TrEMBL record:
It holds the Pfam family RibD_C. GO terms for molecular function: 5-amino-6-(5-phosphoribosylamino)uracil reductase activity. InterPro entries: DHFR-like_dom_sf, RibDG_C, Riboflavin_Biosynth_HTPR. It comes from Actinoallomurus iriomotensis. This is Deaminase. GO terms for biological process: riboflavin biosynthetic process. Residues 2-185 form the Bacterial bifunctional deaminase-reductase C-terminal domain.
Length: 194
């Protein structure tokens, strides 16, 4: 069975974006070492234009072959004219307001997120990447099998949290940690069974 991985950038204090949704403040922490690590280990999580610019447009997908995101995560690329941000993956956008025919390579659906992920998990293929969105991550928390948190060495004080959900503690086990450069961490957690 395929697994759902929430692969996301975060501040030390657990925010994925500023209160207005901006996440540009992370870019000052994209050191050469860190970008090299992401390019080598997580190439499929880089947008298609970035892959081309980095000379890895044809890099094979090793971890994920599908990406699920909400409208809020999809919208910045759309605003910039990028209708297919991850053309090297199956792209599924959960939205009740976007037209279904924006791009033939992007599936836009108003389907229940949990039902969608459960169906995707039954299909053959690599993993499913949950690409940001506190609300969507909160809805899908029971289905998340793995968390990969790219923790940047910055404290935001407030903003959009990793999850927006009702209080319902769920246990995860730390299964890996990498320190890159001067404080960028990549923390991997697996859902604790039982």
């Amino acid at each position: 069975m395929r697994k759902l991985t929430y692969f996301v950038g975060s501040t030390i204090d657990g925010y994925i974006a500023a209160p207005d949704g901006d996440f540009d403040f992370f870019s000052s922490h994209l050191t050469e070492d860190y970008l090299s690590h992401l390019t080598t280990e997580y190439a499929e999580t880089l947008p298609t234009p970035a892959r081309a610019a980095l000379g890895i447009a044809d890099a094979p997908n090793r971890r994920f072959d599908a990406v699920v995101m909400g409208r809020g995560t999809y919208e910045p690329g759309l605003t910039a004219g990028l209708t297919s941000p991850y053309a090297h993956l199956r792209q599924i956008v959960l939205s009740r307001s976007l037209p279904a025919d924006l791009d033939p390579s992007v599936e836009i659906t108003a389907e229940d997120p949990v039902a969608l992920v459960r169906r995707l998990k039954q299909e053959d293929g690599l993993g499913i990447w949950l690409c940001g969105g506190a609300d969507l991550a909160g809805q899908l928390l029971p289905e998340i099998d793995e968390l990969i948190v790219k923790q940047y060495p910055v404290v935001a004080g407030s903003g959009i949290p990793l999850f927006r959900a009702e209080f319902s503690p769920r246990a995860f086990t730390l299964t890996g940690s990498d320190v890159i450069g001067e404080g960028n961490l990549i923390l991997t957690y697996a859902k604790t069974s039982g």
